[in-house]
Amino acid sequence: NKAQAWSARFSEPVSDLVKRYTASVDFDKRLAHADIRGSLAHADMLAAVGVISAQDLADIQRGMLQITQEIDAGSFEWLLDLEDVHLNIEKRLVELIGDAGKRLHTGRSRNDQVATDIRLWLRDEIDASLHQLQQLRLNLAGLALEHAETILPGFTHLQVAQPVTFGHHLLAYAEMFGRDAERLQDARKRINRLPLGAAALAGTTYPIDRLRVARTLGFDDICHNSLDAVSDRDFAIEFCAAAALVMMHVSRLSEELILWMSPRVGFIDLADRFCTGSSIMPQKKNPDVPELARGKTGRVYGNLMGLLTLMKGQPLAYNKDNQEDKEGLFDTADTLRDTLVIFADMVSGIRVKADAMRAAALQGFSTATDLADYLVKKGLPFRDAHETVAHAVRMCEDRGCDLADLTLPELQALHASIESDVHQVLTLEGSVSARNHEGGTAPERVRIEAQKVLKALSES
Ligand code: ARG
């Protein structure tokens, strides 16, 4: 059993099944670059405080360079016998440079090492996802600007409620994704602290310089308690929670895209590259991408629940349970990033069918509230105005026409205060442009808000 780094204490080898059961190298090898970065920073610090020699450091740097090249070239041999990414790299380092490689692990444990690796890796993932989120918001705002005047029905309870501009509807998602970006940025602050130096759990007897390592690795701070540093994965949970919220928003958008693309609704068309056909029904063009995103949202929620549950029963400090933090976390990061890349592209390729939107907004008495507001401005109390318009809607329903189709005398029969200016109020354009306040749906507002998003993003 000489392969294991910890083998001397053991009298019999583990069975093959136990080996496979406990090994993580198949999935944690994707932390390799972070692991090497962490090791180089650790070695640099050990040399600076005189725990290893300058020659040891130079050897470690040379060895790690070669290992990086081997990994990048795909020639690095990952061994299940060596359990995880850390021991695989360390073993290869010793093979390449001898004793200096054996000194690298001085004052360090895999417990603080892995916690550092995950943070380094996750920090990069967050930065990449933030970039994609920004791209998505840019494309939403761009499309919103184009459709500041395009009108579609706004819904409550999935029933036509009031007309809104399509640009306004798109900007609602830009807002949601903006908050998502804030949450990721906020989580990043707590991720960006250095566990290394905590060693196995209690710290180390060597005169280490943790701030130096933190600086080298670009961490804003260190973890201030060694037990906490090696044991908690709350930072990963926070990321998974933020990712779950992004996906929740993506899923709502998906639901709308699917609905809008349904031939029954026909508000938009998605570019062919995001859809597939049916193997049996020749007429179909299915919105596979939004449907999959809606489905993958469930998996991302599951990963969050998995991590929360993983942590809840663990006494301090490190327990091997924590090795189970990785696959769900990796899956979440991959799903988030891929989804955002695809959605940014898909959104900018939405083909808007403005005529269908408009036709739908003309059904369902979407300007009924406008008529009530009109009567209020003529002096009626709102409740009476509401009642009067309800009568008007009934009349229209009986006749199969819209409010705007009622003649002035017909409207005046409902209430004497109604004058010829009422028809302006009953049009879709009149309805949306009257809502011209901050946060309102008026085309002018949409232009202002879309420009704001575009400007903020181009400056960041
Ligand atoms: N592969 C382990 C993990 O991912 C590294 C830490 C192992 N530490 C230990 N004491 N077994 O958590």
UniProtKB/TrEMBL annotation:
Q: What is its main location?
A: cytoplasm
User: Which UniProt key words apply to this protein?
Assistant: Amino-acid biosynthesis, Arginine biosynthesis, Cytoplasm, Lyase
Family of this protein = Belongs to the lyase 1 family. Argininosuccinate lyase subfamily.
Q: Which domain of life is it from?
A: Bacteria
Which pathway does this chain act in? Amino-acid biosynthesis; L-arginine biosynthesis; L-arginine from L-ornithine and carbamoyl phosphate: step 3/3
Q: The Fumarate lyase N-terminal domain covers which part of the protein?
A: 9-302
EC assignment: the record states 4.3.2.1
Query: InterPro entries, from UniProt?
Result: Arg_succ_lyase_C, Argininosuccinate_lyase, Fumarase/histidase_N, Fumarate_lyase_CS, Fumarate_lyase_fam, Fumarate_lyase_N, L-Aspartase-like
The record's gene field reads argH
User: What is the protein name stated in its UniProt record?
Assistant: Argininosuccinate lyase
Q: Which PANTHER family match?
A: ARGININOSUCCINATE LYASE (PTHR43814)
Q: Which reaction does it catalyse?
A: 2-(N(omega)-L-arginino)succinate = fumarate + L-arginine
Could you tell me which residue ranges the Argininosuccinate lyase C-terminal domain spans?
Answer: 365-432
The molecular function terms in GO held by this entry are: argininosuccinate lyase activity
Top-tier EC class? lyase
**Where does the record say this protein resides?**
Cytoplasm
